[in-house]
Amino acid sequence: MSQPTATAISPDSGEHWSAPGAWTVSEGVHRIPLPLPMDGLKAVNIYVLEGDDGLSLVDGGWAITEGRTALEAGLKKLGFEFGDIRRFLVTHVHRDHYTLASVLGQEFGADVLLGAGERPTLELTNGDLDGWISTDRLLAHAGAHELAEKWAANPPPDPDMSHWRMPDRWLEGDVRLSVAGRDLDAVHTPGHTQGHYVYADMAGSVLFAGDHVLPTITPSIGFEPVPVIDPLGDFMASLTKVRDLPDLQLLPAHGPVAPSSHARVDELLAHHESRLAQSLASLKNGRRSAHEVANDLGWTRHERSFAELDYFNAGLAVMETKAHLELLVARGQATREETEAGVLFAPVAG
């Protein structure tokens, strides 16, 4: 079982994984944690790959002063500066991974690469709202009407468009990239987001895993501005895809460096099978919404009740529960019915 996030020590630093600095993971590969103020994740790990032509970074961080300052300090400690960055290999479009890459790429001429599955999210962010469904509407559809009202009353601030420009290159399918004197396999891993990628360095035996495989927590599922039919099914299929790769050292976006990608993937698959079983058991009480099922489940590794969650994490919990219920439908173990009050799920008889 993974160590708790709050006390997780990373072997490359010998300190808590979020401790500021530039930590050498292996020859030519360094980890720089960037702070995430007011975020329970504490930090995001940026990985620096040295090459003869300059630096390649896996992810860029959040475009806030604290993140930019920490990245600049980490690069300086390694003997580099922003102008040495040639490219950003972004794992996915979330703000703590993409926005600083977008800003620095434009300022210093570094290429930004991103999975093509993120195009709808960027198009929505840049003003094309066709097909967009607001979070409060998604929550209401999941039966969480009071929670939806709280989300509607606390809309996110308008985005700074300079942080959300289109990438220089879209990645499609699984491709091999020649980066920093090494071959990286860019592996499409939809689930957390539809355009998520991990980067596998087979020769170096490391996996830059983004948010797909996290060593101490599970990533959110089913919480995208452009909804997909079966995000958990996508996620578990992507986990199986990574499990079919060689066992690699796990270099995650959040949490400590870990020795085995296989071991953590196995834990994540087992976790979601357990949650599927718990969700199905909750349906034995009759037709239920995702919100009602979420109230039956424990949350976080401490098994907190749903009522203990703040409105933001409660929203994540409802949408993740809905993703589990949708996968039960896809597996033929449950049915779904659209009603005026939202979608209701029930177990398949027999």
Order of secondary-structure elements: EEEEEEHEHEHHHEEEEEHEHHHEE
How many individual domains?
2
Number of strands: 16
CATH H level of the largest domain: which superfamily? Ribonuclease Z/Hydroxyacylglutathione hydrolase-like
Q: Would you give the CATH topology of the largest domain?
A: Metallo-beta-lactamase, Chain A
Q: Give the spatial strand order of the biggest sheet.
A: 3-4-5-6-7-8-9
Portion of residues in beta strands equals 15-25%
The first-level CATH class name of the largest domain: Alpha Beta
**Averaged pLDDT:** 94
Query: What structural class do helix, strand and pairing data support?
Result: alpha/beta
Q: Using only CA atoms, what is the Rg?
A: 20 Å
Number of H- or I-type helical stretches: 9
Poorly predicted runs are none
Q: Helical percent range?
A: 25-40%
Shape: globular
Overall description:
- The protein has 350 residues and is an alpha/beta fold.
- The chain has 9 helices and 16 strands.
- The protein has helices at 65-77, 95-108, 119-125, 135-141, 145-153, 231-243, 261-282, 290-296, 311-330, and strands spanning 9-10, 15-16, 23-26, 29-35, 43-51, 54-58, 85-89, 111-115, 169-171, 175-179, 182-188, 197-201, 206-210, 249-252, 334-339, 342-347.
- The strands form 4 sheets. The protein has a 7-stranded mixed β-sheet, covered by helices on one side. It has a 5-stranded mixed β-sheet with strand order 10-11-12-13-14, with no helix packed on it.
- Helix 6 (231-243) runs antiparallel to helix 7 and helix 7 crosses helix 9 (311-330).
- The longest helix is centred in the C-terminal third of the chain and has 22 residues, at 261-282.
